[in-house]
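Predict the assembly for these two chains.
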Amino acid sequence: MGVKNVELPEIGEGVNEGELVGWLVQPGDTIEVDQPVVELMTDKATVEVPSTVAGKVKDLKFSEGDTIEVGQTIITVEEGAGGEEQAEASSKEDKQESSSNQSQQQAPQQQAPQNQQQEAPRPMAASGSQSGGGMETINPPVAAENVLATPSTRRLARESNVDINNVKGTGLAGRVTREDVLAASSGAGAVAAGAPTTAQQSKSSTPTWTPPQNFTTGGEERVPLKGIRKKIAENMQMAKRVVPHFTLMDEANVTKLIEMRQELKPQAEKMGVKITYLPFVMKALMATVREFPKFNGMIDDAAQEIVYKKYFNVGFAADTPNGLLVPVIKNADQKTIYQLSQEIVDLATRARDGKLALDEMKGATFTITNIGSVGGTYATPIINHPEVAIFGMYKIQERPIIKEGELDVASFMNFTVTCDHRLIDGAEAARFLAAFIARIESPGRLMMDMI
Amino acid sequence: MSQFDVCVIGSGPGGYVAAIRCAQLGLKTAVVEREKLGGVCLNIGCIPSKAMIGAAHTLHRMQHDAAEMGLEFKGDVKVNMKKLKDWKQSVCDRMSGGVEGLLKGNGVDIIAGEAEFASPNELNVKGSDSTKSVKAKNFIVATGSRPIEIPGFEFDEKTVMSSTGALALEKIPKSLIVIGGGYIGLEIGSYLSKLGTEVDILEAQDALLAGVVEKDVAQVVSRKLKKDGIKVHLKAFAKSYKKSGNQVEVTAEVDGSSKKFKADKILVTVGRKPNSDQLGIKEIGLELDDRGFVKTDAQRRTNVSHIYAIGDITCQPMLAHKASHEGVMVAEVIAGKNRAYDVKTVPAVMFTDPEIASAGMLESEARDKGYTDLKISKFPFGANGKAVSMMETDGFVKMIADGKTNVLLGCHIVGPEASNLISEAALAIEMGATLEDIALTIHPHPTLGETMMEAAEATLGHAIHIVQKKR
């Protein structure tokens, strides 16, 4: 009997603290040993921290949003009548991986379409394509007549890719200031779309800013951006800000690949392995990345150095009930298609079940997104910074082709490679994609590269 | 065959400015011009007309104001039209020469000749003795506009003149009929009147400059026209003319009844139309709107993505300074910068007597845009020391502001140097300035500029130099 402290155990390699996302218990609750009591967000994942003690919860020592360091007391528990002696240290080391059911790893995300024009490298446009294109939507849109902002502020907004029509002005008479634009640009001052800041709408001539009124008939719900979601948001924002992205798209005739897989499938099933297209793509990619080492590199921003990695760890996006996870296959270049298949199935299953260890989501040097299995013809994914490329594969579609003068049917798969333009130029990306397609179109070639 | 990053067609205030900025941004640039560098503006438009207006204004003041100031001349002041024309031409030549120097100094290739698109990527330029092919990755169409002809009054530039013919006159006509009382007709009619021509203006609408400027602004100019002996006929439609001796006789329907007007010459100034029927614009598939303007987006990109269009050929208002602004913007777009045409106002100036200038909205426009609570007031030049000492006291500065925020929405000036005063209002509108911002800015004394500060104060209800009743 007596009051025991429950301290924050070690929650992962190199993880010293976490942000409190939410309590899973309240004072007065009776809890068991190993029962999760609090949800913490680390920079790797959100984890549920189990109690080391059974009994009645007395005090919660922190509030939502607080940062808790390893070893600090998180709750106090009055030990129950059972008086079960539970060594505090006993569960410090085990069962942690079971609680890492979410990850903030940068997974491919569809970017907002309105960013695309800004993203497209203008030099291409300047070369003057002759397509009947033209008359594109201007992004961001031109400031409406009633938007108050100086010409230089309007230009800053344009150059920062901020739609000034959606920025709430904090200046006199609703004027959008330079600071408002900079805040919106960094995401801090984001404003509900469709909340125009017009001279007419100012209710008085007082220069104070009033929060926007809730004028949608259905109302709106406001939820704090926190935890995993916040981390994802920050990482995505950072990747988009740091990395000048561009995406190259192409298609490959995968008729032979399909035949090969069909041929190998029964054999693999005998060995208890479900074989998908991903390991083939991975294998062809590894061979291609070896040929183009930049794609496995990174930029060390602080040191201003390019790092060429001599190991090949491939992350692949897994869609799970808890959100996107990116498990990593270590040394993928040294594994057979069988081994890759087994690992993919294993990692994907455990990702879905929330059973991945933190280590299994770290250390990728290159990432593949297989969003095509969900839908979409093409995507422009966001690079998992500090990696410099992300590879996309999309659904297979049958299409008519002309083969030796005859109408024929072939299966095509779309592929994209999204690159960090600081390191990789368009032509290199094009050569990379062409080299990959050459391999995937003649899967027999994979044998040549095989280790 | 030459290959450029950018080929600008037309060297008017849109084209030459675009070419210079392109060159500044490191683009290999050419500009094609079929006539003189500087286009209509420098050669047969803005600049020569200002020279003529300046001379006529000086003459008018010598004849009318000088005596009251105590200045006496021996005999009459005479106009030497040949000398005046030479001087006007020297002004144009100097400006055009300046443009040439700037283009060359920035490394822009100047190609003389008439351009026509052979394809969307290639231009044939027919020079005086040979045809040259010019290829470019981007084109900027800046070929401007020309005066509209009306049936029955085809330009011969001798009897029936456009502004071009009027500016090239060798002799001052004894009498002139101006068809179209827009600002170009008023400017030319006014200076010729001052140089000694009897002027009749036939205007189709029921008021001069209706819908273009504020009513009270137009009234100031109307009164002055009347005082100076220019006869303005409203609701007047010219039907036909015939020669009668050395003169012409114009038949017009004025307010429902047929009238005849006799004069030496006819000036037709009923507007300008875009030169989109030239250059092979339609042949290469550039889309036009129903008024013949080349359709562009906010970056002035046409439906053919490497061809841009700027200036009069794109949209109203057909004003040189709008074209120049677009020229700079398009050059930067081509150089890869994110730019768009997002100005809040294109100020307009009319060199009537007195001058008219405006920026921002008319009162009616502000109301149409949903501003129900407006503050409107004006300050007269008669209460400004500088204007009085110049003996130019006609007119006022009028300001229109949002009553809730005091943000300046429009400024309309009629009076001395209105054209030079309006830039402050344009800046205020672009900056989103309030009446207080203008009123609290110290304006130097004694200047015409003080009227801006006082007009802002007046609109706030407390101008110093006029007595305002408490609201």
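Chain A touches chain B at residues 118, 122-123, 125-139, 142-143, 145-146, 148-151, 154-155, 158-159, 161, 172-175, 199-200, 202-205 (CB under 8 Å). The longest strand of chain A covers residues 389-403.
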